[in-house]
Amino acid sequence: MARSQDNSAVGSPAEGVRERLLAVAEELFSEHGFEGTSIRELAGSAGCNIASVNYYFGSKENLYVEVWRRQLLHMRDTRVASVDKAMSEGGDKPDLEALLRSFAYAFIGPLVAKEGGERLMRLMAREMIDPHLPPGMFGDDVIKPTMTAMQQGLAKACPDLPASKVPLIVFSLVGQLIHTIKIKAIVRWIDEESAAMFEPGKVIEHIVGFTAAGIRAYAEGKAE
Question: How far is residue 98 from each of residues 49, 57, 70, 90, 144, measured CA to CA in Å?
Answer without folding.
Answer: 50, 42, 28, 9, 22
